[in-house]
Structure formats: C-alpha cells, structure tokens
Amino acid sequence: MRIINSAQITKAVRKMCISANCHLNSDIRNAIENALETEKSEVSKGILEKLLLNADIADKKEVPICQDTGMAVFFVEIGKEVFVEGDTITDAINKGVSEGYTEGYLRKSVVGDPLERVNTNDNTPAVIYYDYTDGDKIRITFAPKGFGSENKGGVKMLNPSDGVDGVVDFVVETVKKAGANPCPPMVIGVGIGGTMDKAAVLSKKALTRDITQRNKNPYYGELEKTILEKVNRLGIGPQGMGGTTTALAVNIEEYPTHIAGLPVAVNINCHATRHAVEEI
C-alpha cells in the first residue's frame, strides 16, 4: 500500500489549471499548422495564422489562450494500492482548482446554483469522474471546458435500427447547427453506447485523447475519419469564415449498451482543446 498526501494532489491540480489554460497542446498546434497547408480559403488561412499567433502570445506571457477558462473537469484513475491521507481526493482537487484559478488570474465562471446564479468566486466545485485501476498511482486528467462549445453539444437516443448512418447523421447535424458558435476549427467528441448519461461522459472523455491517436478499434477509427470528412464538407470553416477546416479531429469512445438502445452524445470543443495529465 502506497500513501499519498492530499497536498500532492492539490499541488498537481493547481499546476494543471494554469498550464492547460495558458499553453496550447502540441497535438492541437500541429493540427492547426497542418490545416494551414490544406485550407482552401485564403481568409480562413489568415484566421488559422492568428490562432497560432494568439497561442504564441499566451505561451510566452503565460496568460489564458481564451478568456473562457472553463469549468474544471477531471477524469481521475486511482490505483487500488493507493491510500490518500489528509483531505479526500475530491476536496484536494477542489483546493487545487481554487488555488490555480486564483493565483493564475484565470476567469472564475462557476455559479453555485444553476438558477440563483451566484458566482463561487474560485471556479469550484469541479466536475470529477473517478475510475479504479491496478497499481499504486493516481492519474489525473484535467480538461477546462468553455461553454461556448459546451452549449452546442447534444444527446440522442437512437433506435438500434438507425445504425451507423443514424450516428453519423446526428453528429454532422449537431455540428451544422452549432455553426460558428463553438469557435472552430473544432474537436468533436462522440460517445456511443451505455446509457444516456454514460454516452455523454464518453463524449467528454473522448476530448481528452491526443487527436493524433485514432480509436484502437479499427472500425471506430475509420468511422472517426468518415465523420471528420463529412463535417469538413459543411463549409463552416475557421471561426465560421468558410473553408475546409471546420474540425481538426473527431474522437469516438464506445461502450456496451442495451439491446433496445443506441445512445449517442456529441461534445464539441473549440480549437484550443485544452487538457493536461499528471501522474502521482
């Protein structure tokens, strides 16, 4: 049994909150640079160049890539040989969010009640999903989720008879309705299977995967490519200015489901699909 003090978790989370919001991940940067080579619209090429310039400024000055520094979302894998002393893991993470968003001068966007709308003033509480694994480590994945893109996602309970065509149509239609609002070029997370809520979580988790990595199942890997091609034929383009780069990637995560159902969820991210990982 390995003992981890909760202060280590808080420290790691504080660091991730600042880093993920200020430094564009290399997989996203490379995808934007590659899009510059393939984009057909000169106007949209200019947009992509400005997105990279913005990322460079954020990186050098350690200021947020986007003013919406998001709601703090975490996926936490806990080894079964780990014991956390001190605070609970949830309290440790929330302390880290509070410290990171305060010390990093990140915008605090969380309200304590969805209807009363009073700001909590430190971007807590976070949204946290836990999983338990073998080993003696804790792996924390942080994904700040801006709501310009979050608001444009969707869940649909398809009939099994709708099949793969129904899935593709729903994803493409969701992106079409979103238009320029999620600040494209987007990264699109898709969750297929499970229950309604499980599909939604899968779609969000899909956004934390490096966009150079296709789904390990070749069938779903090809489906990711198919949907991306269809999305990029919509003509929305970078920041809605038209062109051939509406999305940088489509990431799919799947899970077993009921014989009577085919749940599908779509979670969209803007071009700055922010995420960070720390292992303790």
Tally of discrete structural domains: 2
- Low-confidence parts: none
Measured by DSSP, the beta-strand proportion falls in 15-25%
The helix/strand class is alpha/beta
Number of strands: 10
Indicate the percent of residues in helices: 25-40%
Could you state the oligomeric state of the chains shown?
A: single chain
The strands making up the biggest β-sheet line up spatially as 4-2-5-10
How would you describe the overall organization of this protein?
This protein has eight helices and ten strands. With 280 residues, it is an alpha/beta fold. 40% of the residues lie in helices and 25% in strands. The strands form three sheets. The protein has a four-stranded mixed β-sheet with strand order 4-2-5-10. Strands 6-9-7-8 form a four-stranded mixed β-sheet. It has a two-stranded parallel ribbon with strand order 1-3. It folds into two domains: 100 residues, no CATH class; 126 residues, no CATH class. Helix 2 runs antiparallel to helix 3.
